[in-house]
Design a protein that fits this description.
With about 230 residues, the chain is an alpha/beta fold. It folds into two domains: about 130 residues, no CATH class; about 100 residues, no CATH class. It contains twelve helices and six strands. Helix 5 packs across helix 6. The longest helix has 16 residues. The chain is globular, with a radius of gyration of 18 Å. About 10% of the residues have low confidence.
């Protein structure tokens, strides 16, 4: 999403609360009557080389396609929201899987199979959206799905929005999150287990009914290795 008037670029990574952020921006800056093509959102009609959805262009794809120039890349405020890679994979599964398809089958046949050709832009690592040609993060602000309320508040300050605009934010298409960060104390560990946010049993855990075994965990960590490394997830 590009707003030339307010001089910002939002990189919408699929299944990272991007729709919620986009609606928040449209409401906060009253962009309802702005041509969607000027905002660079919606479907790609083929006039621009890149993904089938303008909404999901990476930062470098925006630059290379001519949607923005080098001066705008340098001067505009650039931001995105990211998510734990495995949690995001579960969300992609819920969005793109076939009826009654298991997560195991989806990961092996679709996410790491057919979708790499048909919808790579949708399932690719998050770092590919926001890193430059040297592999360094090239946006000014990275919010986290796990801290979405507080990070939207931080984003609003960066965009010089007043407190009243925060009431316009509503998280759409949300799904259960996984708490992957281990607590440091024994009491914290017991509280963490009792919270129900992660169940440990024979190297298997669940996310809203989705079973993730050690094999799937390893496959996803390998595919999204750069996200774990660069974005600091564990």
């Amino acid at each position: 999403m590009i707003d030339s008037k307010n001089r910002f670029i939002f990189i919408h990574i699929p299944k990272c609360a991007g729709q919620s952020i986009q609606h928040f921006l449209i409401k906060s800056f009253n962009l309802y009557n702005v041509d969607r093509r000027l905002l660079f959102v919606g479907e790609n009609d083929g006039r621009v080389d890149g993904p089938e959805m303008l909404t999901h262009f990476s930062l470098m794809e925006l630059l290379n396609s001519g949607a923005i120039n080098s001066d705008e890349l340098e001067e505009y405020f650039k931001f995105t929201f990211v998510r734990h890679p495995i949690d995001r994979a579960v969300s992609i599964y819920k969005f793109l899987s076939k009826p009654n398809q298991t997560f195991d089958d989806f990961v092996k046949k679709e996410l790491l199979g057919s979708l790499l050709k048909s919808k790579y832009y949708f399932v690719r690592p998050q770092c590919e959206f926001i890193c430059d040609s040297t592999g360094k993060i090239a946006v000014d602000f990275v919010g986290r799905f796990e801290d979405i309320e507080s990070d939207v508040r931080k984003l609003a300050k960066h965009l010089s929005l007043d407190e009243g605009c925060l009431a316009l934010f509503k998280h759409r298409n949300s799904s259960t999150r996984i708490n992957f960060k281990l607590p440091k104390s024994w009491q914290g560990f017991k509280d963490w287990i009792n919270s129900g946010r992660k169940k440990i049993k024979s190297k298997v855990f669940k996310n809203n009914g989705v079973v993730i075994n050690h094999e799937l965990d390893s496959l996803l960590r390998e595919f999204y290795a750069l996200d774990f490394e660069v974005l600091g997830y564990r």
